[in-house]
Amino acid sequence: MKSKKAMEVRTLVELIIFVLITLTIGLPLGAKIVEYWTGQPATGTTKSLALLKTEINLLEENETRPVPIYIDKYHIIKAFQVNSKGRPPDCEPKIKGETRKACLCVCKKQTCDFLKQEVNECKTIDFDLAEEQILCPQFDIEKEEIIPQNCKLTKQNQLITISCPAKC
């Protein structure tokens, strides 16, 4: 009787160990593989997109504000003006008669071509941009890694200017 109960306990312990190993190693590894194949940006890039939208919409006239952003090595953030050509469909008004707005998009490549599925996510902003821009990752040569960067947002004459240290 004891040997049968001991075998059940041993099987239960082995099952628990298997589940723990699967959860700690298998799931993160699987998530990285899926991220690689789908091209979904790391959370830092999408958080930076949301932060840029919020900070731009809160800017007062003639105000300059620093904003820390992080862009991973696989993506860029492209800023489209209200009248830019080639804007992704996510930048266009959803309701007929709604006015066009400027737009920020996380893209896989600098072309940001939605037909080639290079656009991951877009957010509209309430003010137009002084110019169409591409925001790139900032690379630290000494540490050999991508690092956050401090960009500056400026609002003058209802136009937004985004200045970041990293150049594409």
Task: Give me a quick take on this structure.
The chain is an alpha+beta fold and 168 residues long. The chain has two helices and ten strands; from the N terminus they run ααββββββββββ.
Describe the protein.
With 168 residues, the chain is of the alpha+beta class. The protein has 2 domains: 1-38; 43-163, no CATH class. It has helices at residues 2-38, 43-58, and strands at 63-69, 76-80, 102-107, 119-125, 128-129, 133-135, 138-140, 145-147, 149-156, 159-163. It is elongated and about 85 Å long. A hairpin with a 2-residue loop joins β9 and β10 (159-163).
Question: What does the secondary structure layout of this molecule look like, with pairings?
Answer:
Elements: H1 2-38, H2 43-58, E1 63-69, E2 76-80, E3 102-107, E4 119-125, E5 128-129, E6 133-135, E7 138-140, E8 145-147, E9 149-156, E10 159-163
Parallel strand pairs: 5-10
Antiparallel strand pairs: 1-9, 2-3, 2-6, 3-4, 7-8, 9-10
What number of domains? 2
End-to-end distance: 72 Å
Helix content: 25-40%
By DSSP (H or I, 4+ residues per run), the number of helices equals 2
Order of helices and strands: HHEEEEEEEEEE
Strand line-up of the largest beta sheet: 1-9-10-5
Average residue pLDDT: 84
What is the count of β-strands? 10
Characteristics:
168 residues; alpha+beta; 2 domains; 4-stranded mixed β-sheet; 4-stranded antiparallel β-sheet; 10 strands; 32% helix; 29% strand
